[in-house]
Each structure stands twice: as structure tokens, then as C-alpha cells.
Amino acid sequence: MSVEEVTKKTETLSVGESRKTVLSDDKEFDLKHPLNSKWTLWYTKPAIADNESWSDLLRPVTSFTTVEEFWAVQNAIPKPRELPLKSDYHLFRNDIRPEWEDDANSNGGKWSFQFRGRIPQIDDLWLRALLAVIGESIDEDESEINGVVINVRRSGYKIGLWTRSTRQAPLSKVGAKFKAVLQLEETDKLEFFAHSSANDKNAKPTLVL
């Protein structure tokens, strides 16, 4: 799928304005099922011109607060295997921007794993990561996870889980669950890097599972 086709799909996507849920009407249980947080999907398109800045490439697609809205978004947007190279999807909680400088991210980091090559199951793995994040199944206290990102590159796909802090005890638990969500083998190395070291090409992970 071309950059133009993906951009057009993401720019025209909307889940509507209705926010009525089963929690707001106890007599109508065929209504929408609320999530614990609002989530916003962002898309980074590949640069076409040299003068395009990061803010030109990064754009919010839509936000959702219910299970039904999530599936409407998921079914409408291109899947990771359809994205052009150098594209990214970012799904972040509330109004957090998928940037290191955002106050909610600045003291945190990310768990990440690089899938080498264009593996056919990447769409399913990305969906598993999305469901685990919005369902709070790997961050039961809702205190660590800010968002999840997939990068589409020539060398393969990378999925990263962005966190609010760098505290080793809770992050080790989150990382172990994330490794299971991604269906990684025991020999696969899931690595955690603090955002403070993001510009250091020689930085070593502070945690490895």
C-alpha cells in the first residue's frame, strides 16, 4: 500500500461522537463497553521531502474510549504488513504524545523487540499487543504503560512498549508479560532502554529478559 493510500485512510477515519456506554445507562446493555482509559492512535508517515519535520510526519488518527470503537478503528486502518517502509503506528493513553519529550514519557523508557525480516504473523502479534495494552492485562495497576509502538523498517518490524518510569521491579513484571504477549521464545531477548539514552547509539539496555 502506498504512502498516499495509507495517509488517505488514516486522515478520513472517525469513530463518531457517541460516547454512551453501559455504565451510563444500566437499562441498555447493548451499548458500548467502556475502556479504563481513552486511547489515541497516531501514524508516522515516511518522509517524502527533505524539509519535512517530525511534526509534519506524526499525526493523530483518532481516539477511542470503548471496545467497539477500538474494533471499528482496527478494522478500518491498514495492517502493519500493508504499511510502507519507515511507517509507524503509535497507540498512547489519554493525551500523551508518542515523543520522548512528553512529560509523561520523559522519565520512562521502552521494552522492545526486533522481528527480523517481513514475518507473516506480524499483524496478529501487533493485535495481541494492542489488546494487552488497552485491556490492562500486562499493567494491572495502570501505572506504568503509556503506549505501544510498531516500526516498519527494511530490516523487519520492531514493537516497543513505552513506560512511565524506569523502576526495575514493576518493569520486570511488565516485561515478562509483554514477552509472552509477543510469543517470544526463551532465547529471544526483550530489551529495555531508558528514553534518556535514546540519542546514544552505543547505549546498552538496562534490563534484558
Automatic annotation (TrEMBL):
GO biological-process terms attached to the record: regulation of translation
Gene3D superfamilies, alphabetized: RNA Cap, Translation Initiation Factor Eif4e (3.30.760.10)
Keywords: Initiation factor, Protein biosynthesis, RNA-binding, Translation regulation
Family: Belongs to the eukaryotic initiation factor 4E family.
A single GO cellular-component term on record: eukaryotic translation initiation factor 4F complex
Name of the molecule in the record: Eukaryotic translation initiation factor 4E
Pfam families for the chain: IF4E (PF01652)
Superkingdom of source: Eukaryota
UniProt cross-references to PANTHER family, sorted A to Z: EUKARYOTIC TRANSLATION INITIATION FACTOR 4E RELATED, EUKARYOTIC TRANSLATION INITIATION FACTOR 4E1-RELATED
Example of a GO MF term: translation initiation factor activity
InterPro entries: TIF_eIF4e-like (IPR023398), TIF_eIF_4E (IPR001040), TIF_eIF_4E_CS (IPR019770)
